[in-house]
Design brief:
- The protein folds into two domains: 259 residues, no CATH class; 70 residues, no CATH class.
- The strands form three sheets. A ten-stranded antiparallel barrel has the order 1-9-2-4-5-6-14-13-11-10. A two-stranded antiparallel ribbon has the order 3-7. It has a two-stranded antiparallel sheet with strand order 8-12.
- By secondary structure, the protein is an alpha+beta fold.
- It has nine helices and 14 strands.
Length: 426
C-alpha cells in the first residue's frame, strides 16, 4: 500500500509509510444500528463481538483492581484475501491508582470465519489456476512464446506488494482482479445480529461512541537545504558547524529526541494531525521516548543511537532497530503463530475520552451542575477531589501498541499490549 498523495505531488518523492491513520468522525446517534455492529470501527461506547459465545463482562476487567474496564477503541480490520472477519478491541482502566500497573490496559481479537469471504477466495483461486493452466497450454503449443503469468499468489493475496492485510482497514477486503466477481460490499454482507453480542450497562463506557474514518499516511518530503548555496567560500569546517547549529535548533539539547520525532511525525501527517490511532499490521510502531523500557525492549540500541546523534543527517531509522523478541512478545497461545505489530493508540485519543464522559447507564453522562449539597455529599465530594489529587480518574499513557496474531486464527483471544506511560520528557 502506498500513501495517497495530494494532486500535483509526486508519490516517488514521498517518505515510505504503510500506516493507516484513524480520526474521530462524529458521534454515533442513539439507537443507531452501527452501535451494535462489530464491522464498525469506533472509539468509546460498547464493543460488539462476532461470536456465538461472547466473552463475559466479568472477563473484561482491569488485571490490577478487577474493576470493569471501558472500551477505548473497536477496530474492524478483516484481512485482504483472508477468510475471517477480524475485530480488535482495546480497553483501559481509568482509575488513577491503576495507571502504570501491569494489566490496566488490555486488548482482545475476535476472528470469525466469513463464508462469503471464503467463497470469494475459492473463486479467485480457481480462476487463477485456470489462467495458469491456459498459459501453460499456450506455452506447450508454442514453446518459443514467453508466458506472462504473474508470480504465484500475487492475484490471490492482493498483488502489488500490498501484503496479507490490505489498505482498506475498516471495510470489506478490496475488490478482486477484473476477471473475478468483486468482493461484496460491507453493507451487503451476511452479518446476523443473532450471532453477535454487544456489551451493555452497567459496564462503564465513554458516551457517546464516535465513528473512526481512515486515511493513508502522507508525509510531505523533507525540505532540502543547499548548504553550498549560502557561501561557496565557506570552509568544510564552517559548513559542518552551521549544520550542527541547525540541528540544535530543530532538536534542542535536553529534549528527548525520540519524543520530539514522535510528536513531529504525528503533527506533520497531511490532513491527519488529529489522528488517534495508527494501523500497520506487520509494520513498525512509532517509538515514544529514549527512556522508556518498552522502547528499549522493542528497539534495542535505538535510544543509545539517538543520544549519540550529532547531526540531522545521522538520524537513526527505528525500523533498523525494531527487533521484538518472542520472550517479550510471545506467539499466539491458540495457534502458535507469531504476533506482529498491528495498531498503536496515540495520546490525542485521551482528549476524546475524558472521565466526564464515562457512564454506566448506556447514555451520555449528564453535565455536572452546581446544586445544593448535604453535609454527607460535601464530604464525599471532598474525598473524591482528594482522590483525584492522589490519582483519581484519568489516563496517563503516552502510547499503546498492540501486537496481534499473524495467523488470524478463529476465536476470541487476548493479544499482547505494550504501554508507554506518560513522563516528563526533558
Amino acid at each position: 500500500m502506498s500513501p495517497s498523495s495530494p494532486a500535483g505531488s509526486s508519490s516517488s518523492s514521498l517518505p515510505d509509510s504503510s500506516a493507516l491513520l484513524a480520526l474521530p468522525d462524529g458521534p454515533i446517534s442513539a439507537n443507531h444500528a452501527d452501535r451494535t455492529s462489530y464491522a464498525i470501527s469506533l472509539i468509546g461506547g460498547y464493543p460488539t463481538f462476532p461470536l456465538s459465545t461472547p466473552p463475559l463482562s466479568s472477563d473484561l476487567v482491569c488485571a490490577s483492581c478487577s474493576a470493569p474496564i471501558p472500551l477505548l477503541a473497536q477496530v474492524y480490520c478483516p484481512p485482504e484475501g483472508g477468510e475471517n472477519d477480524r475485530t480488535l478491541y482495546v480497553f483501559a482502566c481509568p482509575n488513577g491508582g491503576c495507571q502504570r500497573k501491569e494489566g490496566s490496559v488490555r486488548a482482545w481479537r475476535a476472528s470469525r470465519r466469513n463464508d462469503e469471504y471464503v467463497a470469494d477466495v475459492e473463486k479467485m483461486r480457481a480462476e487463477k489456476e485456470a489462467e495458469e493452466k491456459r498459459l501453460a497450454d499456450e506455452r506447450r503449443k508454442n514453446p518459443f512464446t514467453m508466458g506472462a503469468a504473474q508470480p504465484a499468489g500475487s492475484a490471490l493475496f492482493g498483488g502489488g506488494g500490498g501484503g496479507l492485510f490490505g489498505a482498506n482497514l475498516f471495510a470489506a477486503p478490496a475488490s478482486a482482479p477484473a476477471q473475478a466477481q468483486p468482493v461484496p460490499e460491507l453493507s451487503n454482507l451476511s452479518i446476523s445480529s443473532a450471532s453477535t453480542s454487544t456489551l451493555s450497562p452497567p459496564h462503564p463506557a465513554y458516551q457517546p461512541p464516535q465513528y473512526l474514518s481512515t486515511t493513508d499516511e502522507y508525509l510531505p518530503p523533507p525540505e532540502e537545504v543547499d548548504l553550498d548555496s549560502d557561501d561557496d567560500e565557506q570552509s568544510p569546517e564552517e559548513k559542518a558547524e552551521w549544520r550542527d547549529e541547525r540541528f540544535e535548533q530543530l532538536f534542542p539539547s535536553g529534549v528527548d529526541p525520540l519524543f520530539e520525532r514522535f510528536v513531529k511525525r504525528i503533527s506533520e501527517a497531511d490532513g491527519a494531525g488529529g489522528q488517534v490511532l495508527r494501523y500497520d499490521l506487520g509494520g513498525v510502531p512509532l517509538p515514544y521516548s529514549t527512556t522508556s523500557s518498552l522502547t528499549q525492549s522493542l528497539f534495542p540500541g535505538l535510544p543509545a543511537a539517538c543520544r549519540a546523534q550529532k547531526a540531522e543527517d545521522d538520524d537513526p531509522s527505528p525500523s533498523t532497530f525494531f527487533k521484538p523478541s518472542s520472550s517479550l512478545v510471545p506467539p499466539c497461545p491458540r495457534c502458535a503463530a507469531p504476533r506482529v505489530f498491528e495498531l498503536q493508540l496515540v495520546p490525542s485519543l485521551i482528549n476524546h475520552l475524558s472521565p466526564e464522559t464515562l457512564s454506566t447507564t448506556g447514555e451520555k453522562a449528564p453535565k455536572k451542575g452546581k446544586s445544593a449539597q448535604s453535609e454527607e455529599e460535601r464530604k464525599k465530594e471532598l474525598a473524591r477531589l482528594a482522590g483525584e489529587e492522589a490519582g483519581g480518574e484519568g489516563m496517563e499513557w503516552g502510547s499503546i501498541v498492540v501486537f496481534g496474531c499473524k495467523g488470524d486464527c478463529e476465536g476470541f483471544e487476548e493479544e499482547w499490549v505494550g504501554v508507554e506511560w506518560e513522563t516528563t520528557l526533558a
